[in-house]
Design brief:
Length: about 350
Amino acid sequence: MNHTAFFDLLKKGTIQEAYLMEGPEEYIKQQALERLKEKLLPAGLEEMNLTELHDPDADALIAAAETLPFMGEKRLVVVRECALLTSGKKAEDEKKVNAITDYLSNISPTTCLVFYVKGKADGRKKLYTLLKKKNAIVDFSPMSDSECAVWAAKTMQRMGKKLDRNCAEKLVFTVGRDAALLKQEMEKLASFLRDRDAVTEADIDAVCTRSAEYTVFQMVDAQVAGKNQEAFSLLRDMIRAGEERMGVMAMLLRQYRILYHMRCLLDERTPQQAQAQLLGIPPFAVGRTQQQARRFEKERLRQAYDMLLSYEQGIKSGRLPLEACAENALLKLEEILRGQD
């Protein structure tokens, strides 16, 4: 199940006997564990009914799981970084694996056992296979733009502030999809609003830290509008902030690929609703991307994209110098866009 299904079941009071929490979205994963604790552990008796273990042997794990809860219905046992679920050259301890898998087939009804893994677990492991058969795996993969927007709106609501769909999409587009960073920016917004209830797009522009991807979007927006000085200023800001020039090149290449394909979709009269999905961009960005693409014919945008692709390949092969590559790319793009080729 994904994290959304986990939260929905938890809200309904449906709690399984065992879970494996895995995936790269660490903030949401930690929140899921905290919500499970709140649901299971009686207030004031949390310490008496919670056991946290780090890669325990089978005996320690089973002993903790068999301990009866104190003045509550369930004991929560959290096993962190279990070697039987993580990748490594060390051979599996068959005796330990068998003991734990045998216990999982007859786990105490008064225990909720959670295996908590940083990142992804190793799907080849015997314990993983058993947990998968028990439908115990909760996947915390990165959220999509749409999922992030919904999550952000709900989180702001819990802070007592309103974030409509359009502003939620702008927030995700501006900050990125990392939940921990999003939460940090939402806390800044809530503080900035003071007595006001609703977040506006102007608030996001005024307060939120922009991701590198969003800055490149702004940079391209400035360049296609003929504001070359502004584009170079944004590039210098990125370099000063520690962004690698090859990283900027990769994001530039992606943005001009999107512009070229957007121009193709516009020429083909593809419905706007389908454009975001086909291009892999958030709905919020569709209008701005259309405006950018409409400034140039398809052939000129293709020429810009091909130049960036060739330039990147030249740098990677050592034929072209890495030094000042992003700045040179902007100059070359200016020549192409203004018809100086």
